[in-house]
Design the sequence.
């Protein structure tokens, strides 16, 4: 079946089941895809063209389409059906106002269920908890006020900037949730991009790759220690240190922290951690 016919059948069968983001990305995908392809690029303007053809209203921030497909929602079944065994499609930046579909080794970065939790006295100001606007903002504040990056990495760290919008050569515009600078006991400096995910959002391989590439380009010569934070059930914070090895994201370390009032700290536990 030709790709145009394939898309037509898929579109007829699933228009009532897919949300508008999935419909737009499905249209763009099959405008380019041919059997056997492992990557291809498309322009941001194609989102408007696809939405117009499908008579779909787009959000003002069109970047939310690719964000949602990276972290919140799945690709349409028609796209998933083109994946080979053990591989999955990702959407990455490919320059200014351009994106790239690429078929990569399937990866999932999810908190382990069997990992011990470390109790930390909660230093988050109540007023911050009261006015945090979303899970991601709350998670970044909790990590910052409780100095969890310091505890996790064994460094003295300083928050340099959060929600840093910048550009990376070959990728285009990116946003880093929070950027820290770290110092170890020998005086060595580190750059620590932090990715925060709350609710149903998942830690993204694409965002981690972008963060590491940013550090390599903007801070040459300094070591990058990329960290991802994820809310778990019960308010537990999972922290991962991630690295890029042979084109794949690898987990260097994972720790889980439960923030509790000081009076609930187990005195025996703090001597045996």
Sequence:
């Amino acid at each position: 079946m030709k790709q145009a016919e394939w898309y037509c059948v898929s579109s007829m069968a699933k228009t009532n089941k897919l949300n508008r983001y999935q419909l737009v990305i499905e249209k763009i995908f099959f405008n380019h895809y041919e059997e056997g392809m492992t990557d291809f690029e498309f322009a941001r303007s194609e989102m408007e063209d696809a939405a117009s053809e499908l008579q779909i209203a787009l959000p003002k921030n069109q970047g939310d389409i690719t964000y949602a497909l990276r972290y919140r929602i799945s690709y349409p079944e028609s796209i998933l059906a083109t994946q080979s065994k053990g591989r999955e499609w990702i959407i990455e930046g490919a320059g200014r106002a351009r994106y790239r579909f690429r078929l990569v080794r399937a990866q999932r970065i999810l908190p382990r269920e069997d990992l011990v939790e470390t109790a930390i006295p909660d230093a988050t100001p109540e007023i911050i908890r009261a006015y945090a606007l979303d899970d991601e903002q709350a998670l970044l504040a909790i990590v910052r006020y409780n100095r969890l990056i310091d505890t996790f990495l064994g460094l003295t760290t300083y928050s340099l900037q959060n929600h840093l919008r910048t550009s990376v050569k070959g990728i285009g515009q990116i946003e880093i949730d929070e950027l820290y600078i770290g110092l170890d006991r020998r005086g060595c400096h580190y750059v620590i991009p932090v990715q925060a995910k709350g609710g149903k959002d998942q830690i993204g391989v694409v965002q981690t790759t972008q963060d590491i590439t940013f550090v390599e380009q903007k801070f040459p010569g300094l070591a990058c220690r990329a960290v991802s934070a994820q809310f778990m059930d019960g308010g537990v914070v999972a922290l991962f240190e991630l690295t890029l090895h042979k084109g794949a994201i690898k987990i260097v370390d994972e720790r889980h922290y439960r923030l509790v009032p000081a009076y609930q700290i187990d005195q025996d536990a703090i001597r045996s951690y």
